[in-house]
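ok here's the first one, seq then struct tokens
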Amino acid sequence: GSPRRLLLISNSTLHGGGYLGHCQQHIQSFLGQKVKRVLFIPYALHDRDAYARTAREKFESLGYRLDSIHESCDPVEAVRKSEAIFIGGGNTFRLLKALYDNCLIHEIRKRVLEDGIPYMGSSAGTNVATVSISTTNDMPIVYPPSLQALGLVPFNINPHYLDPDIKRTHMGETREERIHQYHEEPNTPPVLGLREGTMLLVEGDKATLQGVTGARLFLRGKKPTEHEPGTDFSFLLTEGNPLNP
């Protein structure tokens, strides 16, 4: 089986809590005691220094040293030497463009899928772990050379998934309608809508929903289904699965 280990978090901050506060126990359990240093990739936000300070403070409080890739003179070498990778949230288009610009797509894939180092993403960092960023909620403020992302899993994720609010008068498309529009295109993979407070743990060929809120799964041509924390999503990892085109 695959050596990949992923923790794909819907959001960095949950209402009423601090940065990564709602998932810090999951992070500690995921990284364990073997990992001493985490390589942080802050490309999704413009102020990378401030972002790195926020992440460093959090990870040091959990017992891990944090190196930010933007402080390295050789980003590719930083990935090659990393013990674990964390890509934070922000604008997904800005993030993906920077990954391409710094020639990191292949290097991150190799470290995670072949070498088995832990990969954590939150929000935009979760988006880029999937097949493509086609199901992000973000505005295309810059133009990456492709929408194809890291492909660490063979499906897409919609972080911050929102259910329709029946009390609101807003008449624009719901998140569900937008994902259906995506699936109107041919050969589009499953989309897992992760509500805030939810994350997907991938260990080899096993995927488990964790957190407090739940998720909604969209398969092309089928009605979406509702899933509680603890759900086994391992079938989504099987590239030959009939659910995956």
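and now the second one, same deal
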Amino acid sequence: PVPAARAELRVRVRLPGGQVTEESLQADSGSDCISLELRTADGALVTLTADFRQEVKIFRALILGELERGQSQFQALCFVTRLHRNEIIPSESMAKLRQKNPRTVRQAEEVRGLEHLSMDVAVNFSKGAQLSSHIHNVCAEAKEAIYTREEDVKFWLEKGVDGSMFEVLPQTSDLPDLQRCKLCADRWKPCICSYSLSIEWYPCMLKYCKSRDAGGKVSSYKCGIRSCQKGYTFDYYVPQKQLCLWDEET
């Protein structure tokens, strides 16, 4: 067997408003996972964990609370979705990346389209480890706020995951007066919250170069990575608008 490799990289990336932030990337080929963390312009700490073994990706956002409006110091959210092949480079390739020019401010070579996801199912934290062992660590602060999608749940159930960890959330069809939180005037009413995040820079594809040997035979070899940027918007049910104060008309 190939010995497990671990790597940690720090890259400087430019945020949409022009500020520069540092992103940390970790790869562990032994547990076949990658994690990436960055602080956004509004101070939120966003983490993406890709668990290749279970085909699961976990987004966590730690959002600074508005203390003067009765919120706690920070609010934690976890969004769990299916990890597709070729979304991110494999963990063993990431573990081989080496830090070059750490002071360079990087910008992604490719901007991938914004993905809008309707998170209509809640995940039970205490059972979530069956879906991915990383949920226990990554989502510990978000025990009551772990969301996924019905179509991803179907995929995992077919793989044999225990369905009792999932609970379908109320939908607009169940509650006809359920509004989007930004349109809802009452802070204590349930509504559909929206949260957007962006992964500014991540290694999304391997690059291959061709070489020719003395006999003229052409072969290809890995010769680098391609970097991408991708944004996500998650819509999900909250029992009261107080849990979604960022989603207001500005």
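notes on #2: The helical segments are 91-95, 134-138, 150-158. The chain is about 10% helix and 45% strand.
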